[in-house]
Amino acid sequence: MAVNFVDRVVLHLSAGSGGHGVASVKREKFKPLGGPDGGNGGHGGSVVLRVDPQSTTLLEYHRHPHRKADNGKPGAGDERNGADGEDLVLPVPEGTVVKDSSGTILVDLVGMGTEHIIARGGRGGLGNKALASARRKAPGFALLGEPGEEVDVVLELKTLADVALIGYPSAGKSSLVSVLSAARPKIADYPFTTLVPNLGVVTAGSSRFTVADVPGLIPGAHEGKGLGLEFLRHVERCSVLVHVIDCATLEPGRDPMSDLDVIETELSLYVPDADLGGRPLAERTRIVVLNKADVPEARELAEMVKPDLEARGLEVFIVSAVAHEGLKELTYAMARHVEAARREVEQVVPQRIVLRPRSVDDTGFTVTKENGPDGPFYRVTGERPIRWVRQTDFSNDEAVGYLADRLARLGVEDELYKVGAVAGDTVVIGATDDAVVFDWEPTLQSGAELLGSRGTDLRLSESSRPTRDEKREAYQDRYAARAATQEELEQERRAGLWHLRDEDDTTD
């Protein structure tokens, strides 16, 4: 049997990598020193999930689970930048829940046109033109493009409907949907005819709502028996649950009361996603439909058990989908409960944009000491250090030196000193298996740098200027000290300790 409906898939997504920058020197006639003119690489394309009204199933992703966005183009000489990679937009049905490999919900895609970037493209590398500065006039290197993100996500489709018809297989749920709405599901007289949820739009007066026909449930559905576990997720978003009970069944050991108890047990044992804010299925509004009243024995049984069901506080309707009996009352009852559920939903408040600027003392990286199989080492983690490492061409000594300068300016070396690192220790930049490992060689410091940290001058550390009175007092102190020194010298001369030498005095 061909698969035409899929509501759960695992996707392997790869965003595009950024294009490499280029190291180039401008070459023109009569201009031997044209300078650097290498262009930047383009940014890689991102993978975007978008809610599309034309999409109703995840079948396409079931057949092709591996998707990749375009890479950015590399730069070129004459200051030509590479083109950005095109984003890969994946259309998904409304109600798709995106989870990571551990089961954590990343986003709930509700609302036509809603988008979410699931894998972000890598940044393009800078060319030597962009790396030129007053100190580095002609860089002989360029930065590499950053690799794009690679993620594995799980897409689960959870039907957006107001009312769910639930019950045993062949209870008449599909027939009920076909007469209440314009939907035309497959109808047959054998169990599990319905293999996929069927949606229909129902109008009752001024109210308009959707009804979902969920495949039949059997005992043990919450554990994966039958088709229940695969499709119970489509009931999570429904505010009203309608029990469709077959009063004309000929199976031994079944009656309307036992059928209701079995389905209620399965609903209570199913655990919906708490992160979506849904209530447990056992707390939803219930309506009981005693179907197939066109059969005389079924009508008698329905009228017999109706008082017992109403004694439980349930609203009960005796209907016949074939004879179109009791449908109007059922339709208006469902509309009444749907409108009540809609009024209970809190008004959606637009999300406020909160700006959280980074603290002034936040360096953007951390240095920790860890113990490995070969001894202790120091791990550096942070967005900028990891990105800089990925963009470095380690076959170019000048590029490696540029990386060392950037890390030093960021304060990585100072932090390594603080945590106790010494020359020759192992330093790891990155938190994954593809981290860069090297033996640390601290940057040599000159005498001026030993006077203070980089970028500071102790001679300019004074934060206040002397006042006029302070300057006058300091001048008077210097004048008094000079006068005292002259008076002391004059007393020593008078005492004969020394005398002034005349021009005619030739004695030593």
Automatic annotation (TrEMBL):
Entry's Gene Ontology molecular function annotations: GTP binding; GTPase activity; magnesium ion binding
Cofactor: Mg(2+)
Cellular localisation: Cytoplasm
GO cellular component: cytoplasm
Enzyme class: hydrolase
EC number: 3.6.5.-
Entry annotated with the keyword Ligase: no
Basic and acidic residues: compositionally biased ranges: 68-83, 456-480, 491-502
GO biological process: ribosome biogenesis
Start and end residues of each OBG-type G domain: 161-339
Binding sites annotated in the UniProt record for Mg(2+): S174, T194
Keyword annotations of the record: Cytoplasm, GTP-binding, Hydrolase, Magnesium, Metal-binding, Nucleotide-binding
Oligomeric and partner information: Monomer.
Record HAMAP family: GTPase_Obg
Protein name: GTPase Obg
Provenance organism: Intrasporangium oryzae NRRL B-24470
Record gene name: obgE
